[in-house]
Amino acid sequence: MATHTITKDSPDRERAIEICRRLGELWPEAHIALEWDTPWHLLVAVILSAQTTDVGVNKVTPVLFERYPEPADLAAADPSEVEAIVKPTGFYHNKTKSIMGASRMIVTEFDGRVPDTMEELMRLPGVARKSANIVLTSAFGKVEGIAVDTHVKRLAGRLGFSKATDPDKIERDLMALLPQEWWGTFNFRFINLGRNICTAKRPICGGCPVNDLCPSAFQVPGWRAEA
């Protein structure tokens, strides 16, 4: 926990850095919950994770990769067979098109390797900035931005870091607030905060480690003092 208190009237940048520092102390080893062995595995898992849980994706990917161990295998697969495997993750028609299309492009344009730049990753079907940021950070150790998922979007608003609703605009606001060394771990620590404390409904404001720095603390309808 903090050794001193910064008031809500402090500049946003100083407040944001203090919040990230506290979360870093609370979750120093925060990392992506998706299970993966190679950059391609991570890319596919991230695409499949849209609008579903990481736990659900982790149940599907071992079956998928056992059946299709390399990008070329998935690129040449029968779509109906892929759909049957990824169906539990939801939106399986579109997700099948995306992971097969991405695998095909990896084979034909990138010599079977997942590209490691933002521009090239975003050319792949099913990959936007959020997904590209996650792959770059976790698979390649490259930090070019902040992955804005549903938790980061919600918390950025509640903490007063951004008034935007568009993920790209939220990302720009966050990048302007924080030093680059915080960008890579920001998403994972905010996911932990969003899942465990600052939930979409009935956040545990009383048990939040940054409630003294949050303009929304004890203001969200249904907030709780403790779990």
Q: How are the SSEs ordered, and which strands pair?
A:
Layout: H1 12-26, H2 39-48, H3 54-67, H4 71-75, H5 79-86, H6 92-109, H7 118-121, H8 129-140, H9 150-158, H10 167-177, H11 180-196
Helix pairs in contact: 1-11, 2-3, 2-6, 2-8, 5-6, 9-11
Features:
single chain, Endonuclease Iii, domain 2, 11 helices, disordered N terminus, about 230 residues, 2 domains, mainly alpha, about 55% helix, elongated, Endonuclease III, domain 1
Task: Explain what the structure shows.
- The chain is mainly alpha-helical and 227 residues long.
- It folds into 2 domains: 12-29 and 148-213, Orthogonal Bundle (Endonuclease Iii, domain 2), CATH 1.10.1670.10; 39-140, Hypothetical protein, domain 2 (Endonuclease III, domain 1), CATH 1.10.340.30.
- The chain has 11 helices and no strands.
- The protein has helices at residues 12-26, 39-48, 54-67, 71-75, 79-86, 92-109, 118-121, 129-140, 150-158, 167-177, 180-196.
- Helix 1 (12-26) packs across helix 11 (180-196) and helix 2 (39-48) runs antiparallel to helix 6.
- The radius of gyration is 19 Å and the shape is elongated.
